[in-house]
Amino acid sequence: MKVTYQGETGAYSEMAVYKFFGNTIEPVPCKNFKDVFESVKTNNAPNGVVPIENSIEGSINQNYDLFLNYDLKVCGEVAVKLAHVLITNPQTNFEDIKTIHSHPQALGQCRNYIEKHKWETTPTYDTAGSVKIIKEKQLPNAAAIASEKAADLYNMKIIAHNIADNPSNYTRFLVLSHKDAPPTGDDKTSIIFSAKHTPGTLHNAIGEFASRNINLTRIESRPTKTTPWQYNFYIDIEGHQTEKRCTEAIQALQKHTTFTKILGSYPRII
User: Fold this and answer.
1) Which end of the chain is more exposed for a tag (fewer CB within 10 A), N or C?
2) Is 258 labeled as catalytic in the residue annotation?
């Protein structure tokens, strides 16, 4: 079975694919996040895996927007611990480094380490891709931030380990599908809604869950991009949408919203 992800072989997203599906699948790299959504939409792959938030740097906003634009389901979640290492070409020494290449999220996760050494940064499309870039271009004064696996795959040198500002550095990934996961008794449901633009509406909307003793595990806002200063809200709640209390809460939520979309229900991992 093919499962798509964004990045090069050795990327953390590929690790998330293997962690969720096991080693019997075929991970298929994509250039960008939109390509992952497209691959599932067009049935080129039954599933895709995309990052949605990092424990240090927060949300991956582009994917929140893509969930709004694509009619796909979330059928699972998985967390991967990011163990960033500093990678160079074999002939490069630590004192030669002047520029660091990596995905913007990884650069942010290692900000203090980079600033301490007064290095310049060059954002790239992917952590493993940054290793590929400095190898192919044979950059003598550059290093990449990526995983140990990426260093091994490209036969590059690891020059420093555990360089993230916080050792508890995790990224949460969501699994794309055309189907919901069946209830397990310990689930989450992800929802997008836009609240009516009147005083107290958001409070009342969230209150529909609180009044039914449903816990919200996450709430995030993103601009609607259609009307200035109006927002869509992304929430995760504990429970499966087929549960009676969740069904009632979602139905009641719609009294306070101009738009509601259920992304899916899936087993709770985090």
Assistant:
1) N
2) no
35: region left, alpha or beta (phi > 0 left; psi from -120 to 50 alpha): alpha
pLDDT in tens, 53-72: 999 889 999 999 999 999 99
Question: Cα torsion for 200, 210, 229, 59, to the nearest 10°?
Answer: 160
Does 132 score more than 90 pLDDT? yes
% of the chain residues with pLDDT over 90? 94
Q: Is the pLDDT of residue 167 over 90?
A: no
| pLDDT value at 182 more than 90 | yes
* String of DSSP letters for 82-133: ---EEEE-TT--GGG--EEEE-HHHHHHTHHHHHHTT-EEEE-S-HHHHHHH
* Structure confidence by residue, pLDDT tens digits, 147-164: 999 999 999 999 999 999
Query: Which residue among the candidates 88, 171, 189, 257 is catalytic per the annotation?
Result: 171
**What is the total residue count of the chain?**
270
pLDDT tops 90 at residue 229? no
The answer to whether the CB of 204 falls within 8 A of the CB of 256 is: yes
Cα 67 from Cα 4, distance rounded (Å): 16
* Contact yes or no for 200/207 (Cβ under 8 A): no
Give the residue from 39, 45, 44, 47 showing the smallest Cα distance to 20: 47
- The secondary element (H helix, E strand) that includes residue 201 is helix 201-210
Residue 171 designated active-site? yes
List 173, 189, 209, 257, catalytic entry: 173
Two structure tokens written together for 92: 């490069």
Report the distance separating Cα 261 and Cα 270, nearest Å: 22
